[in-house]
Design a protein that fits this description.
133 residues, alpha+beta, Pantoate--beta-alanine Ligase, Chain: A,domain 2, five-stranded antiparallel β-sheet, 1 helix, 50% helix
């Protein structure tokens, strides 16, 4: 009789271990899915932040080119974790603006082509293209 009670206890213990292992696998799989979803969200969010930072740097570059046609570029701090580097090349009639944005560990590069029209001492610009490179 004593042997039978010990056998039942062993079966219960083994069943508990199997159920615990299965539960642990389910929890680990759910955690992995959660982490993957968060990483996707973080990448999308970083991409949006970099894009909007690049747009603001493009606006700054256009404003500076219209004020000084010899403007060749600069580095700007957008906020504590975002910066952009502007490089301007080209002729007096057409400028290529290269923008590199760094947001934390995320980096993105953009390029714009700008036509410049001089009317007396005033420079006006026409954005021909703007794209991620």
């Amino acid at each position: 009789m004593k042997f039978l009670k010990q056998k039942r206890g062993s079966i219960a213990l083994i069943s508990l271990l199997i159920i615990s292992a299965f539960t642990l696998l389910i929890v680990l799989a759910a955690s992995e899915a959660s982490i993957s979803t968060y990483q996707i969200y973080l990448n999308e969010s970083s991409g949006e932040t970099a894009y909007y930072g690049a747009e603001s740097c493009l606006e700054e570059a256009i404003m500076r080119i219209e004020g000084d046609s010899d403007f060749s570029g600069t580095t700007l701090a957008i906020d504590a974790s975002t910066s952009c580097t502007i490089t301007v090349t080209g002729t007096s009639e057409q400028k290529t603006i290269s923008i590199s944005v760094d947001y934390g560990d995320y980096s993105q590069n953009y390029e714009a082509i700008l036509n410049i029209v001089q009317d007396g001492s005033v420079y006006n610009s026409d954005l021909v293209s703007w794209e991620e490179v």
